[in-house]
């Protein structure tokens, strides 16, 4: 074997499209491979930059953790035939699936890996389609492991079970160079919104036991992370079917365990947690990712209010539509009135929290009146940020067959109109914070030597830049 082939025989690279859970699972695989002696190719490639635009949400570019630059290699000279290229695919839209396939083809053409392994939601949805791409050697689903995709991927790569369990036992130790780390505590969804495929692809409900969540957060704190974002596919289901990350196969008995905890109890535990030696934790903060509004009950809000020094006053409550009729056609939980009531309760109990949301414009049959109802709810609640998505039909969902298709140009007009309202509500929220004249806690994430400034993210999920030094990175500053 030549010197180049010997080097490449243990090289791997992971590309991730999609949500925070996908990013977390890719990091689990990366950590296990590192523990098994594999070497990562960290350098971003021209392929990535061509496939996805710079400002797209949840992209490959954004989700690759640029950790450990000592491991960077020049792809052109050292990675002609890496042992493994792993692509974690997304199926949230048709566009994301198309980008997954395009990325895979370009990586195969450019790098000619010995093994091209594809997994993730799109691989679950279109297993045969990926298997037919020339150069793809493995298409992995979680079905063989009761939904445990990470275990399935590591088994396919051939990792020794002892190494896998040792690596996954205490969760992630690192999450790239960021000072904010995701911790996946839940998987699976049973909501079945009429536009969404994810409950069909991630329908196995599982929760990480509290002790494992605590161990993982301690590990991340020891490695310098200062913001922990709890995430899941449907975070409000936390507590159902507790299963260790190290479990290889999930059994019938696992599915029938009683629910002994929930998200509120978990947050209460984490708000009071200490390090393993009983000492106080380094200063850090917790943030919740997306919740359904009805899951933000008064008990959870009260825990957040009582522990404001540790839990960010920020809730991402997915709305999708503020029109009662569209809300029903979407098969969303609860009612619009209940959604508004939960937002008002959060404002009262948390005292000016940041409220963010997701909204789909141009859902089948959405009239101008129904769209304006959504706009009215947005103004009433005063979101600080909105992720706006034009409706994209997903084959196999009820919404795909609904009447009343909205033309693309009209969806775009509504998107721009709603974005203008978002700018107004964002500005009003910032103005309200400024009037309080209380400093915000910014986690400093980047230093800019050319301007002697730093950028950071506040507990309200607001981003800002101000004078600072390289020593400020990874610390909290009050501004």
Describe the structure in your own words.
The chain has 479 residues and is of the alpha/beta class. Among the domains are: 1-168, Rossmann fold (3-Layer(aba) Sandwich), CATH 3.40.50; 439-478. Helix content is 39%, strand content 17%. It has 19 helices and 18 strands. A five-stranded parallel β-sheet has the order 2-1-3-4-5, sandwiched between helices. A four-stranded parallel β-sheet has the order 11-12-13-14, covered by helices on one side. Helix 2 runs parallel beside helix 9, helix 14 (263-272) runs parallel beside helix 15 and helix 18 packs parallel to helix 19. The model is unreliable at 1-7 and 45-78 (pLDDT under 50).
Roughly what is the average pLDDT, rounded to an integer? 88
Major beta sheet, specifics? 5 strands, parallel
Low-pLDDT stretches? 1-7, 45-78
Number-wise, the strands total 18
Structural class: alpha/beta
Give the CATH superfamily of the domain at 1-168: Methylthiotransferase, N-terminal domain
How many whole angstroms does the radius of gyration measure? 22 Å
CATH class of the domain at 1-168: Alpha Beta
Terminus-to-terminus distance: 58 Å
Widest beta sheet: strand line-up: 2-1-3-4-5
Q: Tell me the CATH architecture of the domain at 1-168.
A: 3-Layer(aba) Sandwich
Proportion of helical residues: 25-40%
User: What fraction of the residues are assigned to beta strands by DSSP?
Assistant: 15-25%
Number of helices: 19
- CATH topology term of the domain at 1-168: Rossmann fold
Please state the overall shape, judged from the principal axes of the Cα atoms. globular
